[in-house]
What does this fold into?
Amino acid sequence: MPARQTDDFGHQDRCAIVGIGSTEFSRNSERSVLTLATEASAAALADAGLSPKDVDGIVRCDHDHVTHNDLVCSLGIANLTYQGQVGPGGVGPCAMVGQAVAAILSGQATTVLLYRSLNGRSEVRFGSGTASARDAAVTVGGQGTYDEFFLPFGLMTAGQTFSIMAQRHMIEYGTTCEQLGSIAIACREQANANPAAQMHSKPLDMQTYLASRMISTPLRLYDYCLETDGACAVVVTSTDRASDTRKSPVLIRAVAQGCPPDMRGGMMFPIVMRDSITDLPAYSVASTLYARAGLGPDEIDVAQLYDCFSISILLQLEAYGFCEKGEGGPFAESGAIHRGGALPINTGGGHLSEGYIHGMNHVVEGVRQMRGDSSGQVPHAETCLVTGGPLPTGSAVILRKS
Amino acid sequence: MNFDRILPIMNDRDTAGFFEACKNKTLVYRACQSCNATLNPPRAHCGNCGSWDTAWREASGRGRLYSWTTVCHQVHPAYGVPYTVVIVELEDAPEVRLVGQLNGSPDLCAGMEMQVWFETLEDGTVLPQWEPVEKIQQGKES
It folds into this structure.
């Protein structure tokens, strides 16, 4: 089905991000996810020059353990008129921006708080397998999860799933480990300039990358994102209301979500049954997003690409039109995505090297870029693409300097 | 200490037929009787033509290797590494892919012919597994 080419609800530049907040990123926060979410949200509101009393909408991610109710109570929000939820998982953050825009433009809220909070290292480690595998439940699957077709055969993590995609990309296009390594190194270079990044002061070169231990062929340790304790939050309001906030508002040029043409149900694993596992739902996201934005890939100055794994970036470089299908490897290796390149990516270090806040730190870094105060600032950048998780559906936002 | 393998649910209303057939050493896939679209993973309704007339079809048990990964970092006590997860497309319906598990890290190549075999677990559950019809060479791992 062709992507919708219209911006039916006329949202272009009509809402803005006016506040961002983050906790520190660590291996052990030593506090609850509710405390982390509260800290990040309070920081985002302070950044916007607002207080919890101004918030009348919250959109959360379906994977978050912090509920609307918990955050209302913890922050002291007095008059919530809109609560929404978006997912799945890493697809959430950009889709949450979209839902905030929809709530504001439909009059259901004026000031919407988005957050993602997780103790991804000290409490719930995604890399240890799905909940059913971790619990060593004897029997898995059913109820539309389709886990029964995957877990009993030893396919039980996102990393293994993306490894199968990377292997297929190598089969079809001759993509190399060094090309994946260049992506990991590009993110690490950005992290080394970002004092808040978990991998700050930890340089990575190709020799070290290639010598790192294999996790699931062909992906190595440094192809994997970090495991992080932390939270990020952003505040969205209408561009009209944003005119008197503390800092320059960052315009939400356009938002989009998208599905693959042959959805296979379940959550993550059934994607290996799709017609082409090297084609992401991001192709339909990109088509809709660029049409709604009235912009194309040539007009994107900097990108924050969701990077659960290095291969995720490579596939998105193709899907969002920065290079041809199959050319993601050579494009990454060309230096284009590195600091000073034609399309710098993940300028805070991304999930591979800054921290893993499940896509929300990418939104925060996109805002920093458009404000001009990123540690990896791209000179004269006026547009930033931010993408959500590449599977099983997709989502993305284009931010614009006001 | 022995750890139990992960078992598939046997009473899901949409998928139980697949594992029931395995007990009879038969490999099946779901398809629409009206428009012939395959429905994998299995479901009762055909989203292609809107028909409810869907059924299990028997597959030959031959397939081709689409992709794979050799798992080197262990995440479950009953699944010692290395092992290799293979993604196989059916000869009868290449758009239907199934997953299998090989021991070690065998030499594999895309498109190689694969044959199903049926692994019976201690509790009587039967899993369809896949192996290369011809080994490329004697593997580096046994």
In short: The mean pLDDT of chain B is 93. The interface with chain A takes residues 3-12, 14-15, 18-19, 40-41, 43, 66-73, 75-79, 83, 85, 87, 95-101, 105, 110, 127, 129 of chain B (CB under 8 Å). The first helix of chain B runs from residue 16 to 23.
